[in-house]
Design brief:
CATH superfamily: L-arginine/glycine Amidinotransferase, Chain A
CATH topology: L-arginine/glycine Amidinotransferase, Chain A
Number of helices: 9
CATH class: Alpha Beta
Order of helices and strands: EEHEHEEEHHHEEEHHEEEHEEEEEHEE
Number of domains: 1
CATH architecture: 5-stranded Propeller
Distance between the termini: 36 Å
Structural class: alpha/beta
Strand content: 25-35%
Strand order of the largest sheet: 1-5-6-7
Length: 346
């Protein structure tokens, strides 16, 4: 369904210029505790790669832990800002601020985070945006709180009014049971300027506990392109649902009524932690200024995934980051970071 579009309000695309990337550092009181050393190494590498291109803001309950991890590394410390804020966990894509432009002025939207439908504790995480705003780091930019339950990983924007999302997550009764689909569209149009809605009704990953966030399945990219996961193994448990997802993607149309350019990502070999299958996905890449950070899994398909994402972003450096530790807690690269668009910090 389309809604009247207001040019003065929009959620920018992730590939638009950014001031910084926001991270929440892993610590002993998170679920990372058993593999804290390994996952900290991933965060150090991620911080290094981001700091080559832009600033990094890190929140953590103990800042000395972060300083110790970053010292004697190649990280450009002049581009790192640390803020002491307590967290339940590190998936800041889902509890960090979503930034809209209103008359070209950035405003921070602070939605309710309920631990992906009351699955996990979220009280500390739910206060992070509010607490960080109170430090003045956002240079007086307005923070608008709203009672809508919404996670950043559940929505994709092209910056021009198009929203790509999954019905499994946004319409789940564990989020906003008082809103039907039409009412939710109206709410998202009012808050973020969306006027063209693309609802994926198929697609899931074993081990994912977000109720199928869109950023694990399909991503909007420049020039009316969608990059998506494709399963070519008919013996795999995902084969049927991802085939149905692909058919639906082929049926989607742009606001101008044209089909999208579709680029399919390879299917990595199944990753397990004991007997539990983990949600390894190449779609969970992170877009930063002049580069794309791609999750890799020590898999033969890594090289092909990097190549395909490079086709969607031909002018950017494509950098692989080993995310085998990250997926042990059922998420990957995009899930642990949130971009702050241009103008938020200046």
């Amino acid at each position: 369904m389309d809604h009247p579009f207001t040019n003065t309000l929009r959620l920018p695309a992730e590939w638009e210029p950014q001031d910084a990337i926001l991270l929440a550092w892993p610590h002993k009181q998170t679920d990372w505790q058993p593999i804290l050393k390994q996952v900290t190494e991933v965060y150090v590498e991620l911080t290094y790669q981001i700091s080559r291109f832009e600033a990094v803001i890190i929140v953590a309950p103990e800042l000395d832990t972060v300083r110790n991890a970053l010292q004697n590394t190649d990280v450009d410390l002049s581009r790192i800002a640390l803020y002491q804020i307590d967290t339940d966990d590190t998936w800041i894509r889902d509890f960090g601020p979503l930034t809209v432009y209103n008359n070209n002025r950035p405003q921070l939207l602070d939605f309710i985070f309920n631990g992906w439908g009351l699955k996990y504790p979220a009280q500390k995480d739910n206060r992070v945006t509010r607490t960080l705003h109170s430090t003045g780091v956002f240079k007086g930019k307005q923070r608008n709180s709203d009672d809508l339950i919404l996670e950043g990983g559940s929505i994709e924007s092209d910056g021009n009014g198009t929203l790509l999302t999954t019905s499994t997550c946004l319409l789940n009764q564990n989020r906003n049971p008082y809103l039907n689909k039409s009412e939710l569209e109206s709410k998202l149009s009012e808050l973020m300027g969306f006027n063209h809605f693309l609802w994926l009704d198929h697609g899931w990953l074993a081990g994912d506990d977000t109720d199928s966030h869109i950023d694990t399945l399909a991503r909007l990219c420049p020039d009316d392109t969608i990059v998506y996961v494709q399963c070519d193994d008919d013996k795999d448990e995902h084969y049927s649902t991802l085939q149905s997802m692909e058919v639906q993607l082929e049926q989607f149309r742009t606001k101008r009524g044209q089909p999208f350019r579709l680029l399919s990502l390879p299917w990595p070999q199944a990753c397990h932690d004991g007997t539990d299958r983990l949600p390894a996905s190449y779609a969970n890449f992170l877009i930063i200024n002049k580069a794309i950070l791609v999750p890799t899994y020590n898999d033969p398909a890594d090289i092909q995934a990097i190549k395909i994402i490079g086709e969607a972003f031909p002018s950017r450096e494509i950098i692989g980051i080993d995310c085998r530790s990250l997926i042990k807690q059922h998420g990957s690269l995009h899930c642990i970071a949130m971009q702050l668009p241009q103008g938020v910090l200046l």
